[in-house]
From TrEMBL:
Keyword Signal: yes
PANTHER family associated with the record: BETA-LACTAMASE, BETA-LACTAMASE-TYPE TRANSPEPTIDASE FOLD CONTAINING PROTEIN
Superkingdom per UniProt: Bacteria
Family membership noted in the UniProt record: Belongs to the class-A beta-lactamase family.
Beta-lactamase class A catalytic domain location: 97-356
PROSITE patterns in alphabetical order: PROKAR_LIPOPROTEIN
Signal sequence bounds: 1-27
Name of the protein this chain belongs to: beta-lactamase
GO molecular function ontology, one term from the record: beta-lactamase activity
Length: 384
């Protein structure tokens, strides 16, 4: 039984939750190991229908059901969880998508769960899956060497670029590239894996073969980012801040037209519900071999990006493995601010959690606070 929920975003652009999030430091959101987790106070509605909620506060995980009894959250969402998610979704400005699915259960819920949102670096997840599927088929080896030269460099975050520039080229194994692409979100490492597996079409074939649903895969980092900015890719853009300089030199109207086109029909778009389903299938072991499943989940547990996103909303004792994605900014708006992952409760119950901000001008602390509130709600209602 799969339950889906939908609604329409509120027009109000200012809410108590976001104001609260902007007034406190993100460090105050996560308790220190010696703090006792506190239950989240209920959401309240103020004058004019404004929503006030404690975003990102520590929550207390529920006590597991006694042995031999039916877990009440197996077949249906815990009472109140959908309402909490809906209130959080309504209160946050911009295009927002949220999906939660119980991996070891029978339910899923979402808000704008079927809409397409820009993935950005979340798409590295599909590259890793495609590579490991090829490993399972014997077409690629984890110890297979891959050469990376200056002609392979991309843009934005690519720690590998310094080594390549200094040495002329480097050779890394597929295993090392997966680790670097997922845990560090290195764009050059990811595009090197993409080239090794057969390019964007190979990833698209994997998505289709596994029937993953509403998930697109873009043309690779260089073409995706240059197209979103209104530029035609040149390899010289991979050096230093050449790309940023070329982008800044464009007429504002051209940049806006390119950004609007991307947001209206993202070439790397994916629906939150489809991503949650794919995470669920990975965790259940139905996408890859047992060895590859265990390996990828282990790599995702070491992700370094986004420590104040979904992960920070979970109370002590919970585990979280994930992949983030962040798009380009234009006049204070970010095209894609995402986190997707698998949360595991102390009793072993697992949830796929996806939060995607398709376009928002909210400050970064408010974005992180929304994500923390979503994961915190999952933990708070767990076992009810």
């Amino acid at each position: 039984m799969k339950v889906q929920f939908s609604g329409k975003p509120m027009l109000a652009m200012v809410m108590g939750a976001v104001m609260l999030a902007g007034c406190v430091s993100s460090a105050a959101i996560v308790p220190t190991p010696r703090e006792a987790p506190r239950a989240v106070p209920p959401v309240t509605r103020g004058p004019g229908g404004s929503v006030s909620m404690p975003i990102g506060q520590p929550v207390r995980s529920a006590t597991p059901a006694p042995r031999g009894t039916m877990d009440p959250g197996f077949r249906r969402p815990p009472a109140g969880l959908n309402d909490r998610i809906t209130q959080l979704w309504k209160a946050f400005p911009g295009k927002t998508g949220i999906a939660v699915q119980r991996i070891d259960g029978e339910w899923a819920l979402s808000q704008r769960g079927e809409d397409l949102f820009p993935q950005q670096s979340v798409s590295k997840f599909w590259v890793a899956l495609s590579i490991l599927d090829a490993v399972d088929q014997g077409r690629i080896r984890l110890d297979q060497p891959v050469r990376i030269g200056r002609e392979d460099l991309t843009l934005f975050y690519q720690p590998l670029a310094a080594r390549v520039q200094a040495e002329g080229s480097v050779t890394m194994s597929v295993r090392e590239l997966i680790e670097t692409a997922i845990t560090h979100s290195d764009n050059t490492a990811n595009d090197s894996l993409l080239r090794t597996v057969g390019g964007p079409e190979a990833v698209r074939r994997f998505i289709s073969k596994k029937d993953l649903g509403a998930i697109r895969f873009g043309p690779g980092e260089r073409l995706l980012q240059s197209g979103t900015a209104g530029l035609t890719w040149q390899q010289s853009y991979s050096v230093g801040r050449a790309f940023q300089a070329a982008r800044a030199a464009l007429p504002e109207a051209k940049r806006k037209a390119a950004m609007d086109a991307y947001l209206a029909n993202p070439v790397d778009g994916a629906s939150p519900a489809a991503i949650a389903s794919a995470l669920t299938r990975l965790a259940r072991g139905t996408l890859l071999s047992p060895e590859s499943t265990e390996y990828l989940l282990d790599v995702m547990s070491r992700t370094r990006s986004g420590p104040r996103r979904l992960k920070a909303g979970l109370p002590p004792g919970w585990q979280f493995l994930h992949k983030t994605g962040t798009g380009q900014d234009f006049k204070g708006m970010t095209a894609g601010y995402n986190d997707i992952g698998i949360a595991t409760a102390p009793d072993g119950t697992r949830y796929a959690i996806v939060v995607m901000l398709g376009s928002t001008t909210s400050p970064i602390p408010a974005r992180m606070a929304l994500m923390q509130a979503v994961s915190g709600a999952v933990a708070e209602f767990h076992g009810r």
